[in-house]
Amino acid sequence: MQITKYKFPPHGDVRGQLVAIEELKDIPFEIKRVYYMYDTSEGVTRGKHAHKSLQQVLICIHGKCKILLDDGVEEEVVSLENPYEGLFLGNNIWREMYDFSPDAVLMVLASELYDESDYIRNYNEFLEFVKNSKD
Ligand code: T46
């Protein structure tokens, strides 16, 4: 599975760091939505779904967490622990977010507005969807 991880250059000076992300330049889509999760309870796994068409970039802007990506054939685990790193998550990828540190803030840049009909929440349906997408 190809994993795309971005390293956004921090504009650092004596005052500290600043990261800027521009749509279609630093990431490959127009940003229609931004959301973030924080105060994640210990031991929790979030996600456990895939998307039919949504593209996203995940950035752990504080603390750390792990992301499991599953394309229906293989699995990879990516650690996010730097505020200047982004993980691209395309459609057709089952994702699970876990091992959140208590101070973790996971921010997500998304290519589309929220649409429940884009979610695949059942793993067997996901496998079927991936299989049909390849036909
Ligand atoms: C994804 C992973 C990485 C909204 O009302 N608007 C939104 O834009 C989002 C993302 C969620 N919600 C509501 C829907 C649920 O009642 O917030 C609640 C929690 O959402 P969900 O259980 O889907 O959250 P996660 O952390 O399991 O998944 C989220 C995204 O939903 C998903 O697209 O790829 O983060």
Summarize the structure in short.
This protein is mainly beta. It has one helix at residues 123-134, and strands at residues 5-7, 33-37, 46-51, 56-62, 65-70, 75-80, 85-89, 94-98, 105-110, 119-120.
How would you explain this protein's 3D organization?
It is a single chain. The protein has 135 residues and is mainly β. It has 1 helix and 10 strands. The protein has one helix at residues 123-134, and strands at 5-7, 33-37, 46-51, 56-62, 65-70, 75-80, 85-89, 94-98, 105-110, 119-120. Bound molecules: dTDP-4-keto-6-deoxyglucose. DTDP-4-keto-6-deoxyglucose binds next to β2, β3 and β8.
Structural class estimated from helices and strands: mainly beta
Number of helices: 1
* Counted beta strands: 10
Low-confidence stretches: none
Largest sheet: 5 strands, antiparallel
State mean pLDDT (0 to 100 scale): 97
How do the helices and strands follow one another from N- to C-terminus?
EEEEEEEEEEH
Features:
135 residues, mainly beta, 1 helix, binds dTDP-4-keto-6-deoxyglucose
Layout of SSEs?
Elements: E1 5-7, E2 33-37, E3 46-51, E4 56-62, E5 65-70, E6 75-80, E7 85-89, E8 94-98, E9 105-110, E10 119-120, H1 123-134
Antiparallel strand pairs: 1-7, 2-9, 3-8, 3-10, 4-7, 4-9, 5-6, 5-8
